[in-house]
Design goal:
3-stranded antiparallel sheet; two-stranded antiparallel ribbon; alpha+beta; 30% strand
């Protein structure tokens, strides 16, 4: 049977779920420290890259992204916020940046460490039934 835009195609929800699971997560590899693009990453490495990019991309500042993508980390870091305020707000901002993605089911166990003018945030990201440890420098 030929597929035509004029003929409706009946695909069951189970079949769509199987097709979605089979899709690769391949994306271009980014070196965030040096701003270099090269190679390809897949699977868990692609998820890790998404996590870092979603956190480090400022929300509402780039027309190419919708309003759900990115975070407001820059607004917090650029302010004169106390460490106790950062400890409560950074986890919330990171969760908002990541949980809109259907692949991520939970973000938890945040730990903030300040060294000089750098702030290190470590946490766990859960996808399906797998837990990914993450550390992001802000």
């Amino acid at each position: 049977m030929a597929l035509s835009p004029l003929q409706p195609v009946d695909i069951a929800a189970e079949e769509l779920a199987e097709i979605a699971e089979e899709q690769p997560l391949k994306t271009y590899a980014l070196d965030f420290d040096n701003g270099v693009l090269g190679g390809v990453v897949d699977g868990i490495d692609a998820i890790k890259q998404f996590v870092v990019k979603a956190i480090k991309t400022s929300r509402y500042r780039f027309a190419i992204y919708d309003d759900d993508y990115g975070s407001e980390i820059d607004d917090l870091i650029g302010s004169s916020a106390t460490l106790s305020l950062l400890e409560t707000e950074i986890p919330r901002v990171i969760e908002e940046a990541l949980l809109y993605d259907d692949r991520i089911t939970d973000v938890y166990d945040f730990e903030l460490t300040r060294e000089g003018d750098r702030l290190y945030v470590s946490f766990y990201v859960e996808i399906n039934e797998e837990t990914i440890p993450m550390e992001v420098t802000i």
